[in-house]
Write a structure and sequence with these properties.
By secondary structure, the protein is of the alpha+beta class. It has a single domain (about 5-110), classed as HIT family, subunit A (2-Layer Sandwich). It contains three helices and five strands, in the order αβββααββ. It has a five-stranded antiparallel β-sheet, covered by helices on one side. Strand 2 (about 30-35) and strand 3 form a beta hairpin. The longest helix has 17 residues, at about 60-80. The two termini are about 25 Å apart.
């Protein structure tokens, strides 16, 4: 997906043009259920202003970055996964699996998540 296609996807969700299961909607962030969940709880938290990736967001608006994590914690609590554990994850650029170039934080929980980052790095 190109940068412009990906931008329009999230912007259209934020604008309400594409249906999504909204979990939270604040002045600065929208949180939606992933349409292809990788765990029982899989929520995407995206700033309403487009930043290409987490590095760009951290450099330009660290307060907004902190808000993403604060909201992720609240959602984990309300989904009942905070106590058992959850994972927060940014994919940054293509080799890491980023396909939507509008930064979004993945919140995953509700089952054991071992294996995603465990084990040796392939050569």
């Amino acid at each position: 997906m190109s940068d412009s296609d990906a931008e329009s996807l999230f912007q259209r969700i934020i604008a309400g043009e594409i249906p999504a299961e909204v979990v939270r909607d604040t002045d600065h962030v929208i949180a939606i259920r992933d349409v292809n969940p990788q765990a029982p709880t899989h929520v995407l938290l995206a700033p309403k202003v487009r930043y290409r990736n987490a590095t760009e967001l951290a450099a330009q608006d660290p307060t907004l970055l902190a808000e993403l994590f604060r909201l992720a914690g609240e959602i984990a609590e309300s989904d009942g996964v905070a106590e058992s554990g959850y994972r927060t994850l940014f994919n940054t650029n293509a080799d890491a699996g980023q396909t939507i170039f509008h930064v979004h934080l993945h919140l995953l929980g509700g089952r054991p998540l071992g294996g995603l980052v465990d084990g040796p790095v392939p050569e």
